[in-house]
Automatic annotation (TrEMBL):
Span of the signal peptide: none
Cross-referenced SUPFAM superfamilies: MoeA C-terminal domain-like, MoeA N-terminal region -like, Molybdenum cofactor biosynthesis proteins
Known pathway: Cofactor biosynthesis; molybdopterin biosynthesis
Function (record text): Catalyzes the insertion of molybdate into adenylated molybdopterin with the concomitant release of AMP.
E.C. number(s) listed in UniProt: 2.10.1.1
Transmembrane segments: none
Keywords per UniProt: Magnesium, Metal-binding, Molybdenum, Molybdenum cofactor biosynthesis, Transferase
Family recorded in the similarity comment: Belongs to the MoeA family.
Name of the featured protein: Molybdopterin molybdenumtransferase
Domain MoaB/Mog intervals: 180-317
CDD domains reported in the protein's UniProt record: MoeA
Catalytic activity, as annotated: adenylyl-molybdopterin + molybdate = Mo-molybdopterin + AMP + H(+)
């Protein structure tokens, strides 16, 4: 009897923990997960600085300045970005200053360059209201000792920039799971091999390799094993140093579906052998010495859906993520789906934002062995077990696979 999807996910997630941490050069940390919190060792900005090109001065000196009554100040310094002020600003004086340069002692504001005319060492200010707001104060964004980023944060562009800003050249991140991918089946041919009668190319390994990378892990392709127990055992033994081992094919009930026999021969304890989903019901999961082995269907759509719902959350947890699930939302079905669903069904779909809500269209060609719909799908419709055919206009749940 098949276990429920919730039970399968729970069983697998309980068997894994985040991998160990390692220090990695910041340039190589994109989409990795921070293994520790980041504490600022300095204020940012590290000094009072100018947010614009202009003149640093005492705000009260120019508070009443206008085109009709300009204020004339003596220019006592010129401060490019990267330089430090040489003199303090006193009443009646100003310092020419560039964006990002330190504000000199005594200055309480910066007037825009556009509101000033400088001639022969004197600055004539034509507008001075609000110049006291034109200062970036030391530590106004980040204070020394502040916890800036929490552990478990995925390194995106903003995190990369902030880590660089704080001088974190080699952050500690969780190791990426290494995932062995093995296709089984005497009918499966290498993608560069000429197709013989009865053969199909090994699309599964390449499809799953992309899904592995999308889950923040590293795929390791182990090729193809013929439908022979010894051949499959040899390949799985070669993959023993990987963190998770995934096979495709050989998990149904046919005479040449041998992966269950391989598990018995290798001493892999079976956790379950079917999951109540369509497509992708044949899923053989086992555990040996703390390492997970997961066998998926050889049918491409079935393998892809089962990976998405069962393997992906495991990889996200192993890689240190705090959230393991794709976002879900409600959407309006734009076309009928005519099949009843005895098990939880996942349907490749195109989801679109419309008038503040979402619509979703089931894509054609939804068979277990079909991949064409996966090319344009940005969502999967989630149809609960026991559902009748669905009419257009029904409200359905969708699992979002990409940004809309």
């Amino acid at each position: 009897m098949a276990v429920s999807l919730d039970m399968a996910q729970d069983k697998l997630l309980k068997t894994v923990q985040p991998l160990a941490a390692e220090e990695v050069a910041l340039a190589d940390c994109w989409r990795r997960v921070l293994a520790g919190e980041i504490v600022a060792d300095t204020d940012f900005p590290p000094f009072d600085r100018s947010p614009l090109d202009g003149y640093a001065l005492i705000a009260a000196d120019v508070a009443e300045a206008s085109p009709q009554q300009p204020v004339v100040l003596e220019v006592v310094d010129d401060i490019p970005a990267g330089n430090v002020p040489r003199v303090a600003v006193r009443p009646g004086t100003a310092a020419k200053i560039m964006t990002g340069a330190p504000v000199p002692e005594g200055a309480t504001g910066v007037v825009r360059r556009e509101d000033v005319r400088e001639e022969e060492g004197r600055a004539t200010v034509f507008a001075g209201a609000g110049v006291d707001n034109n200062l970036c104060r030391r530590g106004e964004e980040i204070a020394a000792g502040e916890k800036v980023i929490t552990a478990g944060t995925v390194v995106n562009a903003g995190v990369m920039g902030l880590l660089a800003l704080l001088g974190v050249a080699r952050p500690r991140v969780y190791k990426q799971p290494r995932v062995a991918l093995l296709a089984t089946g005497s009918e499966v041919a290498d993608i560069e091999a000429p197709l013989k009668p009865g053969a199909i190319r090994n699309s599964n390994s390449y499809m799953l390799a992309a899904q592995v990378r999308d889950a923040g892990a590293e795929p390791v392709l182990f090729g193809i094993a013929r439908d022979e127990i010894a051949a499959i055992i040899t390949r799985l033994s070669d993959a023993a140093d990987c963190d998770l081992i995934v096979t495709t094919g050989g998990v149904s009930a046919g005479d040449y579906d041998l992966v269950a026999d391989v598990y018995r021969e290798m001493g892999i304890d079976v956790l379950f052998d079917r999951v109540g989903i369509k497509p992708g019901m044949p899923v053989l999961a086992g555990l040996k010495a703390g390492k997970l082995y997961i066998g998926l269907s050889g049918n491409p759509a079935a393998a892809s859906v089962a990976f998405e719902q069962i393997v992906r959350p495991v990889l996200l947890k192993m890689g240190g993520r705090r959230e393991w699930w794709r976002p879900r939302a409600k959407a309006l079905l734009t076309a009928p789906f005519t099949k009843p669903s005895g098990a939880t069904r996942f349907v490749w779909a195109a989801c679109r934002p419309v008038n503040g809500g979402l619509t979703v269209e089931p894509l054609p060609l939804q068979g277990n062995g079909m991949l064409k719909s996966a090319v344009t799908a940005n969502a999967m419709i989630v149809i609960p077990a026991g559902s009748p055919p669905l009419a257009a206009g029904s409200v359905v749940e969708v699992c979002l696979l990409a940004d809309l």
